[in-house]
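Trying the structure run again after the queue cleared.
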Amino acid sequence: MERIYLAGGCFWGLQKFFDQFAGVGRTEVGYANGPDAAPSYQEVCASSGHAETVLVEYDEKTIGLEKLLDYYFMVIDPLSYNRQGMDMGVQYRTGVFYTDEEQLPQIRKVFAREEEKAGRKLAVLCEPLRNFFPAEEYHQKYLEKNPGGYCHIPPRFYGLGDGT
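Done. Tokens:
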């Protein structure tokens, strides 16, 4: 399984979104690319510097990185800085955090397509993963446990996959 870390606003909806696709083996929400100490949710909300992020483990033969990133860009506003929907703050910044430099050509290809569509540089970070701390258990699969929970991703996007 390959790994990519995606920050796209509130991690609750992003996790639910990626869980629907065949080839995605596991997702986990957490806090990435902030200081090197594991934060609490309260510290993240108080601008610890970490981004709410989803670890996506995927089978490259079933769903490639480019396809995952196409889906990612479908549910974020790539021009918004430190904001997605009604969520504002540094923890809601958008970013693609990679652990394998071999992923960079695919990432850059998707970014170039998205910048061409937008007509300008994206507000989405593309950088190596510096750290990732799993979020508290109550955040894992949050929208499955709390179906009425808020997320900036419209519900219609949760029916795109095959449900696996």
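The chain has a mean pLDDT of 96. Worth checking whether this holds up in the mutant runs.
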